[in-house]
From TrEMBL:
InterPro entries: HTH_MarR-typ, WH-like_DNA-bd_sf, WH_DNA-bd_sf
Alphabetical UniProt keywords: DNA-binding, Transcription, Transcription regulation
Name of the protein in its database record: MarR family transcriptional regulator
MF terms (GO), sorted A to Z: DNA binding; DNA-binding transcription factor activity
Every HTH marR-type domain range: 13-145
Cross-referenced SUPFAM superfamilies: Winged helix' DNA-binding domain
């Protein structure tokens, strides 16, 4: 593991972090505004979007996929379940595993609003060409995986 870096490398990394953070905040604002316009907080919308795009999820997977602590997941799931957007279902093969699934109301609602959300996200990234978007996807995955790997060294 490399422990020494030049001042140029340090300055570049700090600049990159600041630009990355600002860009993330700017793009995230589109999603936050979208979720609020549809009556959800960003976390609730993120759970609905995950279930809509990826299908039923184990409760503990929702937290890790959305970077939430388990107490927040439980609160959000409870609220969405109370409003009949999702329901919990026990895994018949593993009684310890509970899945969250969209109800018909949740699915119908997402059928209506998800295309609008997808268009807004497309617009948020429209300053980049398709090729640049693909490059950014690859670079962010690479940076994220490498950074995550370093945490466990």
């Amino acid at each position: 593991m490399r422990l020494t870096y030049t001042q140029e490398e340090i300055d570049r990394a700090n600049t990159l972090f600041k630009i990355f953070a600002r860009a993330f905040k700017s793009v995230s604002e589109h999603s936050i505004r979208d979720s609020k316009e549809h009556g959800f907080n960003p976390t609730e919308f993120a759970v609905l979007e995950l279930l809509y795009t990826k299908g039923p999820q184990k409760l503990q997977q929702i937290g890790s996929r959305l970077l939430l602590v388990s107490g927040n997941v439980t609160y959000v799931i409870d609220k969405l379940e109370k409003n009949n957007y999702i329901f919990r279902e026990q895994d018949p093969k593993d009684k310890r595993s509970i899945y969250a699934k969209l109800t018909d109301k949740g699915t119908n609602y997402m059928d209506d609003i998800y295309p609008i959300h997808a268009l807004r996200m497309t617009r948020a990234f429209s300053g980049l060409s398709a090729e640049e978007q693909e490059q950014l996807i690859a670079l962010l995955k690479k940076a994220g995986l490498h950074s995550q790997h370093l945490l466990f060294r």
